[in-house]
Design brief:
The protein is mainly α and about 300 residues long. It has two domains: about 200 residues, Serine Threonine Protein Phosphatase 5, Tetratricopeptide repeat, CATH 1.25.40.10; about 100 residues, Tetratricopeptide repeat domain (Serine Threonine Protein Phosphatase 5, Tetratricopeptide repeat, Alpha Horseshoe), CATH 1.25.40. The protein is built from 15 helices and two strands. The chain has a two-stranded antiparallel sheet with strand order 1-2. Helix 4 runs antiparallel to helix 5. The chain starts with a strand and ends with a helix.
């Protein structure tokens, strides 16, 4: 089954976060030096790997893939970059090094494979992601646009440009990019999520519900889709529907602040204060980070309710 791997990245403008060793540093402007490794010899004829949409996939079960690995209780989760995992090929190895913040090793793999993949849109998309992870936004834009130029209907770079636009505060452009990516990509759940999160940011819960409902229909066990849909209902005051959706998850999910706090709030709103206390007390407070203020507000509300 052709699928797009869904990976979340660092917090965008308007969404605070705590700093940890695993978090990506903010983007820097800097000069573009990334083409310095391209030499004239690189343009000599060499066997290239052709792009094949059939092979643009990953080995896995959609039921085991969460569409968004981190959510924000400020209801402005990080937009996600869209990746394509082509089994065990060199490009995936390269971007994997970048996600592990071993950028030199990742860049070397991309450089070593330039001649084979220079006409492959997936190469430039993944290379752009490697630089995005380093905070080199100008270079990432360059490579995402290169990928898009090679294949106009290739969804990943279109979505990823939207992520950058959103980071820059250009949310109208971001929304347009997400819409375009969702139209051209048969399995483009990532841009749909990004659209849903933007709708939630501006309290357009009706539009958000439509998107998240479609995603839940595609994968009824997707934790992130369920969380997004439940948050949509909670925001519009339908706590009963939110509780019903959150109840489909398990205790493993409730310990996560991005899920447990909203579930606790929804339980309190339907009069289940004792259950609300139970869920809130199960949350891993050591990982609250940006959710600390929100957690304390919900705690205050629940503490004032009858158990």
């Amino acid at each position: 089954m052709k699928l797009l791997i869904l990976l979340a990245l660092f917090t965008v403008v308007g969404c605070s976060s705590s700093s940890t060793n695993n978090e990506v540093a903010g983007p820097t402007s800097g000069s573009i030096e990334e083409f310095s490794w391209v030499e004239n010899a690189d343009f000599k004829e060499t066997p290239e790997v052709p792009f094949s949409s059939r092979n643009d996939s990953f080995q896995g079960d959609i039921a085991n893939v969460d569409s968004l690995s981190t959510e924000s209780l400020a209801r402005i989760p990080e937009p996600k970059l869209e990746e394509v995992d082509q089994s065990t090929d060199a490009l995936v190895q390269g971007v994997t090094h970048c996600y592990r913040r071993n950028f030199k090793a990742g860049e070397k793999i991309f450089q070593d494979n330039f001649r084979k993949y220079k006409s492959h849109p997936g190469y430039w998309n993944l290379l752009g992601t490697c630089y995005y992870l380093q905070g080199k936004i100008r270079a990432a834009l360059l490579y995402y646009n290169k990928s898009r130029d090679l294949k106009k209907d290739y969804a990943p770079p279109v979505n990823n440009l939207g992520v950058i636009y959103q980071y820059q505060g250009l949310e109208q452009k971001a929304l347009a990019a997400y819409k375009r990516a969702s139209e051209v990509g048969a399995f483009s759940m990532t841009p749909m999520f990004n659209m849903g999160q933007l709708y939630l940011k501006y309290h357009l819960t009706h539009d958000a519900k439509i998107i998240f409902s479609r995603l839940v229909k595609k994968n009824a066990t997707d934790v992130d889709a369920l969380n997004g849909l439940a948050t949509s209902y909670l925001m519009e005051g339908n706590a009963k529907a939110a509780v019903s959706l959150y109840s489909r998850l398990t205790a493993v999910h409730y310990v996560k602040p991005q899920i447990g706090i909203n579930f606790s709030l929804a339980l309190a709103d339907v009069g289940r204060s004792k259950d609300a206390h139970t869920i809130l007390s199960s949350i891993d407070t050591g990982s609250l980070g940006q959710y600390a203020t929100y957690y304390n507000k919900v705690l205050t509300k629940i503490s004032g309710a009858k158990k």
